[in-house]
Specification:
The protein is of the alpha+beta class. The chain has 2 domains: about 120 residues, Aminopeptidase; about 150 residues, 3-Layer(aba) Sandwich (Aminopeptidase). It contains 9 helices and 14 strands. The longest helix has 19 residues.
Length: about 300
Amino acid sequence: MGNSPLSFSIREIRVDDLNAAAELCFQAFWEHNVYVGICPSVDFQDVESARLMIQQRLLDPLADGIVAVNDRPRRVIAVGFIHYGRKVNSVTAVAVDPKASGKGVGKAIMLALLEKSRKTEAVSIRLTQYFVQSATNIKSFALYFSIGFMPVECLCNFCGNLQPDQSASAALSVHLNLDGLKVRQMEEPDLKICSDLFNKALGYDRERELRATLSSSQVWVVTKSGSIQGFATGFNRTGYIIATSEEACVALYCNASGYVFANVLCQLYPKILKWALAAKLPLIRNAWIMVRGEYQRPANGLVWAPGLH
């Protein structure tokens, strides 16, 4: 396409856009990761994994999606979603066909998503779901900054194979005392306590979303003397953790096995950072959480490990 102008339009995503959106999403993330020298499959292993991600958002009643469509030939060249919360909305899964990069398509998608957010009662919109801003993607960082997003937290994105004994040994080596901390699956009576912890930490409510995850076998709480000290909505890229201490957070990670994502707010939680390094989890990239509007850092001594949903 060179530097020639690009004629395109923005519209709501449709079910029949699924395959095209998945292919361009996979291609955009893969090519960027190859360019910056990180594992290309860290975001999507293949087109099918991108398709499942797009499909989940199409089925999500709390999400809206849009696409950019090239005029000639008619084809989808960008996609983006917004997830609605009561107080905080999140931009997710924005991707532009590499062949259409630098043509204003990404900005058009973002402005359309911002307009959707403006029509809600949310006081903030964030790049925090699937879409923490990679520190290596200078072009997109400049775009988000130009439309009002500010970097508020730096995180280290670790992911790799992890076993419970490996996690426990790492905790011991960095002098984290996990005595008395026990992990079990979350149950219905735990929801209110966990929702209150989230609200206390971050200043907004996510009980609807938390309730929706309860059917998953990957939702956990950590307790001490029977009292809930934190919870995890999974240890994959979409899961997040709220805990009363860094020790409680690591205790949750020690319950994980297999391929684990651990997103560490490195300025806030040095003990967790030391644990991840001692556990020899690969550090894939550093990234920014970017916010437009209000933002509350984790408060009241609570710990937050964000997801990249």
